[in-house]
Amino acid sequence: MKSARVVFKGGIPFSPEFDDIYFNADDPIGQSEYVFNSVFDEIWSKKSEFNVLETGFGAGLNFLCAFKRFKNSDKFLNFVSIEKTPIARDDLAKIYANFSELADVSGELLDAYPPLIRGFHRLNLAPNVTLTLCFGDVAEVLDELSFIADAVFMDGFAPAKNEAMWSERVCAKIANLCAFGAVVCTYSASGALKRALQN
Question: What is the pLDDT of residue 109?
Fold first, then answer.
């Protein structure tokens, strides 16, 4: 399948296809922790196993932050992430070279990173951490998934740049995979997305 075309602008990966950056230049790790991974703080003491569904793997920073949190814990993480245009391994390596604080987990991900073939790729990265990379269209992949998510990370390119990923149809499919009381995390404040999630 086609890999993402990544252009580096001042060290920040940019997608010409979607005319958008992969993450904010100002403290991307902090943003990932605040917007997405802070969900674990709320439910950490309540569960021993966590199922996370992510739309938009991108550069994988959300997963790496979660991996680092879970790696030496007694909790289990099952992280399922969907990506239509995955980044090639060499480009990921260039991105991760700028994040020394994630070196212990990014190296493990790079070592296990699958070939860019459409379908599901299950990576057992630690005894308690599993990443399933789903390469394909988000709506099609959601139809094929069968698990119950405790948290959803909606982290595709901005809705104005990639409308299909944030559609009411996609939100309905995500809702069907959520546990009662599941938490949805996103940086987007799009009015259309708010309405879709409320519905």
Answer: 98
CA 33 – CA 15 distance, rounded (Å): 23
Residue whose structure tokens are 């879709």: 196
CB neighbours of residue 93 within 10 Å? 14
Find out whether 53 and 151 touch, Cβ atoms under 8 Å: yes
Tokens of 71: 């790696």
SS3 category, 60: coil
pLDDT for the residue 42: 85
Mean pLDDT by 10 residues, the chain (199 residues): 88 89 88 93 91 96 97 96 96 95 97 97 97 96 95 86 83 92 83 72
**112 vs 122: CA distance, rounded Å:** 10
Q: Decide the pairing of beta strands 49-55 and 149-154.
A: parallel
Contact of 152 with 52, CB cutoff 8 Å: yes
* Continuous segment of H or E residues that includes residue 197: helix 191-198
